[in-house]
């Protein structure tokens, strides 16, 4: 059972200025005139999640570039990428992080040396409906909790698998960052639950989940900003006390189930931290300018419609990660974190991981944190116990794969194939 599912926790942040949204009549990006031929996905289109209304999740699939270890491409694992936000298009991850082509500031595409589809299939889903190129026929249909999000994603994944005979038996791994730290555990849990009720041929072959710089348990995570910033030397004791007060205020709202107030209170923590430190972005305290993700919007300009589901952000505090705990208990997981992320960075992840109800946690906390090198160069640290791996990626912020493309590729491949420090 232990090897059935694995979990990878990564830390990245959500950086999207606007949601890429398409009205139902807008064309998918593959028909946009400026989209170069060589960067087109192997397959893309719509996976209907509600046959009554026609609401649908947009997908872009890139087949593996080469085979590995004599495993034919048609049998290689498939990674599913979910962006955070909530309400950020996965085209951000595609064109700025892990896809085979990366968009630069000149709005041209360059081959990504760290693409995650080098040896695995890679599919980007715009989730939930109403986000990016996905279609929500009505506002009422846009999910407002993790259970409904998982339900739609499960239907979409089943439809995706049905697109090609070879997809059926390929191992599936859920990956994503930031607010996907909520989607991924919820979806993992839902898949395991559904699989137990379905005949073998209708199951989703889920083998592991990987969360990068995830916002998974805000109540615990919000309490780490002050102390983390203090020990980084960014704020003094008086400012630490001020931030701690704001953090407690947020936690108070969460405990009373006041989700909107909690969201505003958390934003006050983060805004105050930004103001008093003068940092360009909390997503990476060393950056002099924020991540330039607006290029993705510019690139898809001709497809842009109305904004997606920003209101769903109000739900940030609603869902706790019980299913994450459940998933790990089944033996699933990896986490990875860009170390310079002040928002959903290393200390904030370690704080919630420690509270997981999984009998492997004492073993994990005692496990040695090993120095991780890529081509002889220091890349970060790996701590692993049974199915749970935690990776700290050095010299990276919230969008870790964009800061460390090659190391991110080595990480995802070694983790999935249980090589190097990830060997069991
Ligand atoms: C499909 O849409 C209808 C009408 O809004 C709704 O009643 C139904 O629950 C939806 N089904 C799913 C799977 O979301
Ligand atoms: C941060 O600074 C901006 C600009 O000076 C100001 O508008 C905002 O209210 C400040 N936010 C907080 C939480 O202090």
Q: Can you describe what's shown?
A:
This protein has helices at 91-98, 146-161, 180-195, 218-221, 225-231, 237-255, 259-277, 294-299, 322-329, 346-353, 361-366, 400-403, 405-417, and strands spanning 6-10, 43-48, 56-62, 78-82, 101-103, 109-111, 121-125, 172-177, 206-212, 333-338, 369-374, 377-385, 388-393. The protein is an alpha/beta fold. It has one domain: 3-Layer(aba) Sandwich (Rossmann fold), CATH 3.40.50.1820. The strands form two sheets. Strands 1, 2, 3, 4, 7, 8, 9, 10, 11, 12 and 13 form an eleven-stranded mixed beta sheet that branches. Helix 3 crosses helix 9 and helix 6 (237-255) runs antiparallel to helix 7 (259-277). The two termini are 13 Å apart. Residues 7-33 and 302-332 have low confidence and may be disordered. It binds 2-acetamido-2-deoxy-beta-D-glucopyranose (2 copies). One 2-acetamido-2-deoxy-beta-D-glucopyranose is lined by residues 268, 271-272, 275.
SSE layout:
Blueprint: E1 6-10, E2 43-48, E3 56-62, E4 78-82, H1 91-98, E5 101-103, E6 109-111, E7 121-125, H2 146-161, E8 172-177, H3 180-195, E9 206-212, H4 218-221, H5 225-231, H6 237-255, H7 259-277, H8 294-299, H9 322-329, E10 333-338, H10 346-353, H11 361-366, E11 369-374, E12 377-385, E13 388-393, H12 400-403, H13 405-417
Helix pairs in contact: 2-3, 3-9, 5-6, 6-7
Bound molecules: 2-acetamido-2-deoxy-beta-D-glucopyranose (2 copies).
One 2-acetamido-2-deoxy-beta-D-glucopyranose binds at residues 268, 271-272, 275.
């Amino acid at each position: 059972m232990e090897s059935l599912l694995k979990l990878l926790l990564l830390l990245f942040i959500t950086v999207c200025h606007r949601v890429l949204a398409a009205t139902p009549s807008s064309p998918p990006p593959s028909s946009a005139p400026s989209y170069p031929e060589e960067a087109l996905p192997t397959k893309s289109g719509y996976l209907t999640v509600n046959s009554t209304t026609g609401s649908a999740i947009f997908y872009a699939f890139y087949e593996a570039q080469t085979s590995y270890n004599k495993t034919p491409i048609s049998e290689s694992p498939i990674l599913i990428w979910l962006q955070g936000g909530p309400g950020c298009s996965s085209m951000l991850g595609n064109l700025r992080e892990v896809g085979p082509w990366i968009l630069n500031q000149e709005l041209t595409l360059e081959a990504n040396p760290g693409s995650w589809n080098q040896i695995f299939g890679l599919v980007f889903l715009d989730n939930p409906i109403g986000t990016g190129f996905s279609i929500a026929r009505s506002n009422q249909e846009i999910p407002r909790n993790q259970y409904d999000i998982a339900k739609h994603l499960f239907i979409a994944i089943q439809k995706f698998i049905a697109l090609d005979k070879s997809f059926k038996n390929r191992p599936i791994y859920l990956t994503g960052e930031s607010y996907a730290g909520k989607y991924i555990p919820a979806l993992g849990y839902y898949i395991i639950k559904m699989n137990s009720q379905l005949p073998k041929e209708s199951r989703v072959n889920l083998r592991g989940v990987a969360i990068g710089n995830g916002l998974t348990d805000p109540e615990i995570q919000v309490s780490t900003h002050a102390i983390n910033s203090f020990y980084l030397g960014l704020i003094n004791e008086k400012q630490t006390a001020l931030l701690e007060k704001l953090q407690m205020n947020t936690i108070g709202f969460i405990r009373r189930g006041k989700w909107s107030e909690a969201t505003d209170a958390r934003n006050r923590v983060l805004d105050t931290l930004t103001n008093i430190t003068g940092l360009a972005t909390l997503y990476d305290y060393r950056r002099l300018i924020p991540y330039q993700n607006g290029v993705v919007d510019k690139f898809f300009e001709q497809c842009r419609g109305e904004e997606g589901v920003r209101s769903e952000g109000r739900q940030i505090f609603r869902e706790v990660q019980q299913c994450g705990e459940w998933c790990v208990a089944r033996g699933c997981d990896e986490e990875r974190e860009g170390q310079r992320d002040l928002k959903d960075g290393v200390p904030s992840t370690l704080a919630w991981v420690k509270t997981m109800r999984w009998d492997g946690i004492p073993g994990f906390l005692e496990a040695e944190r090993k120095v991780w090198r890529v081509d002889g160069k220091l890349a970060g640290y790996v701590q692993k116990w049974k199915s749970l791996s935690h990776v700290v990626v050095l010299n990276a912020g919230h969008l870790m794969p964009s800061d460390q493309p090659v190391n991110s590729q080595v990480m995802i491949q070694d983790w999935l194939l249980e090589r190097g420090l990830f060997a069991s």
